[in-house]
Design goal:
The protein is built from 6 helices and 12 strands. It is an alpha+beta fold and 282 residues long.
Length: 282
Amino acid sequence: MAINNFVSEVWAAQLQQSFLKGTKFASPAVVNRQYEGEIANAGDTVHITSIGRPSIATYTKDSTSITFENLTDAQRNLVVDQCKYFAFEVDDVDKRQAVNGGALMAEAAREAGAALGEDTDEYIRGIIGSDTDAGNIVGATGITTSLLAVARLVAHKHFLDVTNTPIDGRYTICPSWFNSLLMLDTRYVEHDALSGGTALETGVVGRMLGFNIVQANYALTTGDDWRVYSGHPSAITFADQIDKVEALRPESAFSDALKGLHLYGAKVTRPSSLCYTLCSVT
């Protein structure tokens, strides 16, 4: 059966599932997706409105006259300025010669979703690197022992504490070698112990000192220096759509093909709730 007889929504769902499983910086553990249903086209603008904190006054029974204040608001704009596509085909001959030709398209769709995830992660990682408050950035620091790795986590906790960043939901994104050092500490709780062994589509591998630990192995900057990030999902708003997934039979070939468009954008709304350290293994 030719691929164009399949329902496109099925392929879109498969792509989305693979995308979510493969993302780290774009995962729900790191960003919030409150506005993702509000985009449809590249160039769309999402208006993010925040409300000022109400004043607190003293109330005295039978004497206080309550005064209502007008709250102030602030608005930031998230522009969906990233527009990426994929397009691939599987030749009929190759499909027939394969043991299970139909599985080739399914596997290719999964790989496309994973590739979209890596591309998006790099984009969000760049935003964190450029928009984090300067005072929350620590230069090259040697991390060679478990004690030093834990000390970095404590320092990140301090950064977020003094900026009144919410405690629940904090995360740390680190490379595997840094996570391995943390695991040597008895306070580290592995993900399986947290979840009863069930898999999460958030990239979380453990928890320590109030941080969900997310392992990502593509945060290398230069040489042997890696960035270790900490923050809270409320600091970054992310919106995306895997749009216009189409299955087709190209006129110029005997093949099944699939193409799709990924629209997305992100905005740092609380730069003081982000921090990172440039860590060296030597």
